[in-house]
Amino acid sequence: MRFRFDPDVERFRQEVREFLAKELPPEEERIRLGYEGGFKTPEEEKAYVMGFQRKLAERGWLAMAWPKEYGGGGASHMHQLVYNEEMAYHGAPVMNMGIAWVGPSLMLYGTEEQKRRFIPRIARAEDWWCTLYSEPGAGSDLASLQTRAVRDGDEWVINGQKIWTTGAHLADWGWLAARTDPDAPKHKGITMFVVDMKTPGITVRPLINMAGRHGFNEVFFEDVRVPAENVVGEVNRGWYHMAVALDFERSGIQAFAGGRRSVERLVELTKRRPELVRQRPSIRFELADRAIEVSVGTFLAYRVATMQARGLVPNHEASASKLFGSELSQRIALTGMHLLGLAGQLREGSKWLVFDQAAAYLNAVSATIAAGTSEIQRNIIATRGLGLPRD
Fold first, then answer.
1. pLDDT(35) > 60
2. pTM of the full structure
3. Where in the chain is the domain with CATH 1.20.140.10?
């Protein structure tokens, strides 16, 4: 089969590439910022990310998947696919919790005042949002969350702890899930709030990952008072509001586009440093395996987007793409370590450093946990895809 995109989709891809060539810093700089947290201050990181995203917003690309009536582009699944593919391949800073989670939820469940207040600012990249979901005892089993919100007149008083909150140290607003009825079954009794992260009683503490990068945080709520008007949707129906899924492209192409660039980077290194291959001749076969896997994964992702474009709802197909992509990212990182040998353990500051492959390897560890563990994906594939029994 020879797969081709429609001409208008390919024209759009070229437009995206031209934009990225003009607006993104050189690749070496992006690698440094992406893998090593090379920003001097959180404010510098926020300015870099939001500055780039505002340029996307000016073109109508930041919220390109949103309906036009909410300031989005109403783009097709295939336009979204190539946009996500090109952004991931070039390492562009496009992750935005407000676009991914908050805006879509407000479109469906927010009041008219909430929509007017928040949605335009999200679409223009004027606010940084974090999602306050996971807790020390509620990760994959999110319905077990225990952060409490108690009504007190025109306010809710919130107490509890959240963990692994990406970007909380940069956030202007938080998208919070809290338990409002402790006696209800665990999938009920949860309510969604928008929370000003500067509210008294909120404490954000950094969590430094294995690569020495600060992206995650733990967030503590001590008698935090939130106006009742900040409740989104029905009280005690937050679990169902969290599960919101508008008609967005969710193929997982980002993992394969980023993986393709990582493999290309390793191949380019072998051309500059042929002694690495002479020392480990088998690395050629390992690199070939990774390149083949990237191609396979890309078509898994294309299949998901194509199903969505036809009005179908991918289920186990999306899980297969996610599972293959997250585990492939770990294999690519390991191949890089094999190629570099002992030098792969070097970090920034060493005069012998080729590039910080160790950071890439350490960052890849969480790939099979974030956004749904590999175990969960395999269960979905087994039960919904293969029809196997749960027991």
1. no
2. 0.91
3. 253-385
